[in-house]
Amino acid sequence: MVAASPMYRVGWTMKKFNATMINDIWPETAFFTLIATAVAIITESNIHNLAVGSSLLTVLGTGLGLVISFRTSSAYERYQEGRKMWSNIAIASRNIAQIIWIHVPLERTDKDNNRLTTIQSVIEKKSMINLVQGFSVAVKHFLRGEIGIYSEDLYPLICWLPCYANATGPKTAADMHEEHTLHTDSMDPEKALTTIQSHRPLKPARNPPPASLLDCFPFLRIFAIFTRCCRRKRKHVRRDALGRKIESSITESSVPLEITIYLNSYLAYLLRNGWLQPALATGLVNNIASLQDALSNLDRIGTTPLPFAYQAHLRMSLWLYLLVLPFQIVSTMGYMTIPGTALASFLLCGFLEIGQEIENPFEYNENDLNMDEFCCAIQRELHEVAAYTMLDPAAFVFTSWNQPFAPADRRNAEELTRMPEEYRHADHPDVDPGMASIQRTLLKNWRDVDLITRQQSII
Q1: Dihedral angle of Cα 336, 339, 341, 342, to the nearest 10 degrees
Q2: I want to staple 143 with a disulfide (CB 3.0 to 4.6 A). Which of 13, 295, 330, 362 is the partner?
Q3: How far apart are CA 39 and CA 47, in angstroms?
Q4: 197/51: higher pLDDT
Q5: Given this model, what pLDDT does residue 173 score?
Q6: Residue range 117-144: average pLDDT?
Q7: What is the mean pLDDT of the chain?
Q8: CA 359 to CA 368: how far, in whole Å?
Q9: Is the pLDDT of residue 189 over 80?
Q10: For 350-379, how does the pLDDT look when each residue is reduced to its tens digit (9 = 90+)?
């Protein structure tokens, strides 16, 4: 499949522009271009010959290019691994939901002879599926350093758990009339959740750090470092993975880990009462373990960057290379040194910045993984699982809509079951009825499908 290039799609917006590296590398590109301009003008105007030998240019350029390529490829490998872990979460969530919804019985009696009605069983199973949905949302906030449960997309899913529920119960509409929430611009997916009101204002599902002047002019960060060193030492302020100040929270435990503990407790509850077969229990255990494994791997990716010494040395080496590049090529390129240096700095600094941006793909940058969409996809799939009713196969198999032996025999299941004798193919009445005739039909079915599909593939 050939994917459409985003460079040729209609309608460039500021969001697409921010997804490129131009906004991050233009100060460096402009700086090295100015150096090249000064070198070219001074040399070509015969003010002073600034040209130097270029014997090391090829060797240093090749080595530096290989190191930058390794930096970018290692960062992309982390990006791909993060995406695979989210796929594992989606698969395990679907499997857990299907086991709970389909295989846990509705009408049941526990070992203490307490009978659960159908509505109680449905509420119980749907609540556990909501808990599975809450795991992916909790992982998203965990990776972004947003501790606690007070988010618009997380709180409605897990506020009923004993460790988070308030003793006085949720707020009423009258209580909420006297307060203001922190944000009013919530995302549309939160409208599909329950309307439980928290005793604390809820943060929005997407809470990126505010944009600042340093985002548009990255070179000004050097002045921020100097001013920070000159300030009086203040009390240490805790900050999250995105650099935002962490407010004190009632609970700062690992919410995804606690959700898996409740899922395992529910599994133990089902096994104690004999409501789940051992094979299905093994599958449920393996899928819960898959959630925990994905959480650990995602945390490893997000909290293990490349060593600072490696990144700093690579960037300083690149700056030194671009700084001396105009002096080495001005004797042969003349005024073309200016665009040549600009192009070299744009390419090399761009690749280096790409590696740094996708190294941690769990933030709010335009090139990071769209974890909000992943959570919404899991939400849709789990609701789809719970939408299916557990029907007897006879209710939908033996109907006029089902043609089980097509294309060899296009009679529907209702006609076949009304036959007064065993199955006999309409085109081969001489064949003995029963399984032999069915086998002949299936053999013809295979031949017809093989012929039709091969002809289509040739065309």
Answers
A1: 170
A2: 362
A3: 10
A4: 51
A5: 44
A6: 91
A7: 79
A8: 9
A9: no
A10: 888 888 888 888 888 888 888 989 999 999
Distance, in Å, from the CA atom of 354 to the CA atom of 21, rounded to the nearest integer, reads 7
Sorted by sequence, the CB contacts under 8 Å of residue 122 that are 6+ apart come out as 106
Long-range CB contact pairs, 157-166, < 8 A, 24+ = 157/130, 157/131, 157/133, 157/193, 158/131, 158/134, 158/255, 158/259, 159/196, 159/198, 160/127, 161/131, 161/258, 161/262, 163/251, 163/258, 164/251, 166/199
Residue-level pLDDT at 82: 92
**Cis omega (within 30 of 0) on the bond before 162?**
no
Residue 130 and residue 123 in contact, taking contact as beta carbons nearer than 8 Å:
no
CB 342, CB 281: distance < 8 Å: no
Checking if the pLDDT of 153 tops 90, the result is no
> Token pair of 31, please?
């700086």
Average pLDDT over residues 94-110: 91
Q: Rounded to whole angstroms, how far apart are CA atoms 68 and 448?
A: 55
Take residue 405 and report the two structure tokens written for it: 């032996």
Please give the residue range of the domain that contains residue 405.
Answer: 396-458
The answer to whether residues 153 and 196 touch, using CB atoms and an 8 Å cutoff, is: no
Q: Report yes or no on 410 lying in a domain.
A: yes
Q: How many domains does the chain contain in total? A: 1
CA distance 246 to 354: 28
**Tokens at residue 351, please?**
């690749």
d(CA 417, CA 81): 51
How many angstroms separate the CA atoms of 331 and 34, rounded? 17
Tell me the three-class secondary structure of 400-432, residue by residue.
CCCCCCCCCCCCCHHHHHCCCCCCCCCCCCCCC
Instruction: Give the rounded distance of the alpha carbon of 86 from its chain centre.
Output: 5
Residue 420 falls inside a structural domain: yes
pLDDT at 177 over 90: no
Mean pLDDT within 143-165: 83
- Per the domain annotation, does 454 fall within a domain? yes
- What are 183's two structure tokens? 């944000």
Report d(CA 197, CA 155) in Å as an integer: 9
Q: What is the distance between the alpha carbons of residues 109 and 114, in angstroms, rounded to a whole number?
A: 5
Greatest mean pLDDT range, 12-21, 111-120, 276-285, 303-312 = 276-285
pLDDT, tens only, 327-352 = 888 888 889 999 999 999 999 898 88
Domain contains 44: no
The CA–CA distances, whole Å, from 88 to 94, 259, 289 equal 10, 17, 11
* Residue found by looking up tokens 């003349």 in the block: 334
